[in-house]
């Protein structure tokens, strides 16, 4: 895709200083800019690069005044970082604006889909599936029976959506995601042999949820596993049966949440966190990476460690932990003297 500086300025409501007809066809970092590329300057630490960059067009803040001669054409905007992010989003929309049904696919006669639908080759769409407008389902995806997918959702290649799952508007599911597999439910008998407990519930993803590659979200035993509006999950996360995650909570990679735990809204959970089942985590909670959460957590707590302590207590304890050899030596010296 090729855009001129004037076209980009029109998208961003910016002003061109330089050649309005200069064209770009790729994006770059300002320090790695090449002819034909578009970059941006938002952090003052990178200002020196604007005088040496070979990028054809650079987005800058309106208050930027060059101190030396420039070879790059400027587009001045209110906020360079926000405008560049907007441009990336626009670029992705144009790049991913596929429409039509490729061949071969399986699309059930009872499935219904809206306008501007894309279904990639070797995808499977089961019975009674309902798909909204502008939905994109990439090759090798599996959509089970009775699934509902809202407008503008994107299901990337190889994602597997089990039956009865409900996916809201503007959701993004990346490659390798599995939504709606059975929860880990087994019951032992007197011989310590395990019988499977049927998992008859489903998964509900509300609007604006994004799920990273390789993440798994299990269906509920009864009822629903629910990710509320705006939840963002990183890659390779395990969400167990009957978990509920509140609005706009974000969780980093390799975290595991055990069954029936309720997580509040606007929480921030780091990578490799382990959370036990059947507890409640409040709103606005922050959990540092590699923490182990074995108890319910109140609103606004910040935790670290395994088992997790409050963030302040953990840091105080860690200072003493590092000094344990010295402390032990002092104790032994005192004991010898006595």
UniProtKB/TrEMBL annotation:
GO terms for biological process: lipid A biosynthetic process. The keyword Lipid metabolism applies. It comes from the Bacteria. The active site is at 241 (proton acceptor). Pathway: Bacterial outer membrane biogenesis; LPS lipid A biosynthesis. Homotrimer. This is UDP-3-O-acylglucosamine N-acyltransferase. PANTHER family: UDP-3-O-ACYLGLUCOSAMINE N-ACYLTRANSFERASE (PTHR43378), UDP-3-O-ACYLGLUCOSAMINE N-ACYLTRANSFERASE 1, MITOCHONDRIAL-RELATED (PTHR43378:SF2). Keywords: Acyltransferase, Lipid A biosynthesis, Lipid biosynthesis, Lipid metabolism, Repeat, Transferase. It holds the Pfam family Hexapep. One of its GO terms (molecular function) is N-acyltransferase activity. It comes from Arenibacter certesii. Catalyzes the N-acylation of UDP-3-O-acylglucosamine using 3-hydroxyacyl-ACP as the acyl donor. Is involved in the biosynthesis of lipid A, a phosphorylated glycolipid that anchors the lipopolysaccharide to the outer membrane of the cell. The keyword Lipid metabolism applies. InterPro entries: Hexapep, LpxD, Trimer_LpxA-like_sf, UDP_GlcNAc_AcTrfase_non-rep. GO terms for cellular component: membrane. Gene3D superfamilies: Hexapeptide repeat proteins (2.160.10.10), MurE/MurF, N-terminal domain (3.40.1390.10). It is an enzyme of class 2 (transferase). Belongs to the transferase hexapeptide repeat family. LpxD subfamily. Residues 22-89 form the UDP-3-O-[3-hydroxymyristoyl] glucosamine N-acyltransferase non-repeat region domain. CDD domains: LbH_LpxD. It catalyses: a UDP-3-O-[(3R)-3-hydroxyacyl]-alpha-D-glucosamine + a (3R)-hydroxyacyl-[ACP] = a UDP-2-N,3-O-bis[(3R)-3-hydroxyacyl]-alpha-D-glucosamine + holo-[ACP] + H(+). Its EC number is 2.3.1.191.
């Amino acid at each position: 895709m090729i855009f001129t500086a004037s076209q980009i300025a029109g998208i961003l409501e910016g002003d061109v200083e330089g050649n309005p007809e200069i064209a770009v066809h790729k994006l770059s970092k300002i320090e790695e800019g090449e002819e034909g590329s578009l970059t941006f300057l938002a952090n003052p630490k990178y200002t020196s690069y604007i005088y040496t960059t070979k990028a054809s067009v650079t987005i800058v803040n309106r208050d930027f005044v060059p101190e030396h001669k420039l070879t790059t054409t400027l587009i001045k905007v209110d906020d360079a970082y926000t405008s560049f992010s907007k441009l990336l989003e626009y670029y992705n929309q144009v790049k991913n604006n596929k429409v039509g049904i490729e061949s071969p696919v399986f699309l059930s006669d009872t499935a219904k889909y809206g306008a501007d639908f894309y279904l990639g080759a070797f995808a499977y769409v089961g019975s009674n599936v309902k798909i909204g407008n502008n939905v994109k389902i990439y090759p090798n995806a599996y959509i089970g029976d009775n699934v509902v997918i809202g407008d503008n959702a994107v299901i990337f290649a190889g994602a597997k959506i089990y039956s009865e799952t409900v996916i809201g508007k503007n959701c993004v599911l990346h490659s390798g995601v599995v939504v709606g597999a059975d929860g880990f439910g087994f019951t032992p008998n007197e011989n310590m042999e395990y019988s499977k407990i049927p998992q008859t519930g489903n998964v509900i993803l509300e609007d604006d949820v994004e799920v990273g590659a390789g993440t798994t979200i299990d269906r509920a035993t009864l009822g629903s596993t629910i990710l509320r509006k705006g939840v963002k999950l990183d890659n390779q996360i395990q969400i167990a049966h009957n978990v509920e995650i509140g609005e706009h909570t974000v969780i980093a990679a390799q975290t595991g949440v055990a069954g029936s735990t309720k997580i509040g809204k606007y929480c921030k959970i780091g990578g490799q966190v382990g959370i036990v089942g059947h507890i409640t985590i409040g709103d606005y909670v922050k959990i540092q990476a590699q923490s182990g959460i074995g108890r319910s957590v109140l609103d606004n707590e910040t935790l670290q460690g395994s088992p997790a302590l409050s963030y302040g207590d953990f840091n105080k304890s860690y200072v003493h932990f590092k000094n344990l050899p010295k402390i032990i030596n002092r104790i032994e010296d005192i004991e010898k003297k006595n």
